[in-house]
Amino acid sequence: MAPHNKCCEDATHNHDEAERGIQYSLYTKINTNDLECLNEMVRDSGKTVFKAWENRLNRDMFVQSDMDEELLFNIPFVGNVKLTGIIVIGDSTDAHPSRMRLFKNREFMTFDDVACEADQEFELQKDTEGVLEYATKIVTFNNVNHLSIHFPSNFGEAFTVIYYIGLRGQFTEAHRHGVTICNYELRPNMSDHKNPLSDNVNSPIA
Q: CA 128, 152, 45, 159: dihedral to nearest 10 degrees?
């Protein structure tokens, strides 16, 4: 029989893991079909780093840059997101990204576009377990339908490796407004606009 304290520790750990899994579930709100990663060595490998919290340490699914160390993710959501935090798990070597730049609602950026000022930038530390969270500016990232993440550099390797990108925040369904059809009356129909005074005028005076 396991000691009581051990059971409590396990229960607390499982609860914390479940809570973190809920917090980092925004990957389920990504329009995966239109998600793209520029300069990835293997096509569509960039999509695999957006995965469940419990799979964050899975080293079988990762993206590696191709021509140089840069990676650029274009991430469309199926609704509106209030983004509050990001976790990046990289390689234990110098292939871990060293900087991260965020761009809000600028659809399908290219490397020619990243010369403009980012909405927020971070200096990254090596994180192989997912213990470091980078908090975003809540006012800036309060209404996001498209997020671009640019990793311009790493710690000195010729290529960059990323295993997991976790997005924390709140999701709101996109509102779809239907077209309202109105019929306007071009010529008034007198029968639809009866005036009670006319009846009094036409009535004979006793």
A: -70
pTM: 0.79
Q: What's the CA gap between 133 and 116, in Å, rounded?
A: 25
**pLDDT value of residue 22:** 87
Quick one: 88 exposed, middle or buried, by C-beta within 10 A (0-12, 13-18, 19+)?
Answer: buried
| Average pLDDT across the chain, whole number | 85
Q: Give the contacts of 82 (CB within 8 A, at least 6 positions apart).
A: 138, 141, 142, 143, 144, 169, 170, 171, 172
Q: 99: which 2 tokens?
A: 């900087």
Position of tokens 């292939």? 95
What token pair was written down for 34?
A: 């239109």
Q: Please, are residues 33 and 76 in contact by the beta-carbon 8 Å criterion?
A: no
